[in-house]
Amino acid sequence: MKAPPTLGCVMAEFDEYGVNNKKIIFYDNDQRHASLKVRLQHDGLTQSSFFRMVITGYLNKDPNLLAFIDRHKEENKVQSATQRKKVKKMIEAGQETQVTHGLEESEVENIFDLIEQEHPEL
């Protein structure tokens, strides 16, 4: 099993998929936004670097981030206890594969290649 990349080389890993211009947007209230900005400034981070860091940790299955997410899912009843245990065991055993909508990672890459051939403007 390939070791996950460090945070420093994350952008290089994803450069092969094209232009880095995808925007991720969500809404929150003024108070939480202001608190986030203050905390980020205190830690010397920008919003974009923070969110990229969290996404990288999530995609690389960082144990600390996964534990945080698991607690959130349990407290907010997002997923059944049985399903959470099953996913956790698969991750610990290294049996979880990169699957997107039932497709292996290599199949997803082939789909991106086909889309690029048919729609080069994307």
How would you characterize this protein structure?
The chain has 122 residues and is mainly α. The protein folds into 2 domains: 7-60, no CATH class; 79-122, no CATH class. The protein contains 6 helices and 2 strands; from the N terminus they run H-H-H-H-H-E-E-H. Strands 1-2 form a two-stranded antiparallel ribbon. It is flat, with a radius of gyration of 18 Å.
What share of residues is helical? 55-70%
Q: What series of H and E elements makes up the topology? A: HHHHHEEH
Strand content: under 5%
| Whole-number tally of structural domains | 2
Instruction: Quote the average pLDDT.
Output: 79
What is the element layout, followed by pairings?
Elements lengths: L9 H5 L15 H14 L3 H13 L3 H13 L5 H13 L5 E2 L2 E2 H14 L4
Antiparallel strand pairs: 1-2
Features:
122 residues; single chain; disordered N terminus; 2 strands; flat; mainly alpha; two-stranded antiparallel sheet; 2 domains
What's a concise summary of this model?
59% of the residues lie in helices and 3% in strands. The protein has 6 helices and 2 strands. The protein is flat and about 45 Å long.
